[in-house]
């Protein structure tokens, strides 16, 4: 398979690094498969672009009970505002 797209971010979660990576792979028959790239996945080679945020503190994830997910905290240690996207 070939990596078509690999995007995500790295933050802190439970005092350790937490990569959240979304991947899309193409197969020999030109079909594609995608989802979260999990640990212990073997990737032989890929190109990447690194975008660094100008912050004094690293991004940190904590569990948000309102939505049931680990999400980023802002510099005041508050969860960012949640919003609804409608199509």
List the helices and strands and how they pair.
Elements: E1 2-13, E2 16-26, E3 32-36, E4 60-64, E5 69-73
Parallel strand pairs: 1-4
Antiparallel strand pairs: 1-2, 2-3, 4-5
- Specify the CATH homologous superfamily: Hypothetical protein, similar to alpha- acetolactate decarboxylase, domain 2
Query: How is the main sheet built?
Result: 5 strands, mixed
Query: Count of helical segments?
Result: 0
Unreliable segments of 5+ consecutive residues: none
Average pLDDT: 77
Radius of gyration: 16 Å
- Top-tier CATH class: Alpha Beta
Short description:
With 87 residues, this protein is mainly β.
Notable features of this structure?
87 residues, mainly beta
Report what the structure shows.
The chain is mainly β and 87 residues long. It has one domain: Hypothetical protein, similar to alpha- acetolactate decarboxylase, domain 2 (60s Ribosomal Protein L30, Chain: A), CATH 3.30.1330. It has no helices and five strands. A five-stranded mixed β-sheet has the order 3-2-1-4-5, with no helix packed on it. A hairpin with a 2-residue loop joins strand 1 and strand 2. The termini are far apart.
């Amino acid at each position: 398979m070939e990596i078509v797209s690999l995007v995500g971010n790295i933050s802190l979660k439970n005092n350790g690094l937490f990569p959240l990576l979304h991947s899309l792979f193409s197969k020999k028959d030109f079909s594609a498969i995608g989802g979260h790239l999990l640990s212990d996945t073997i990737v032989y080679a890929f190109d990447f672009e690194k975008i660094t945020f100008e912050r004094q503190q690293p991004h940190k994830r904590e569990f948000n009970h309102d939505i049931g997910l680990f999400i980023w905290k802002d510099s005041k240690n508050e969860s960012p505002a949640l919003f609804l996207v409608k199509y």
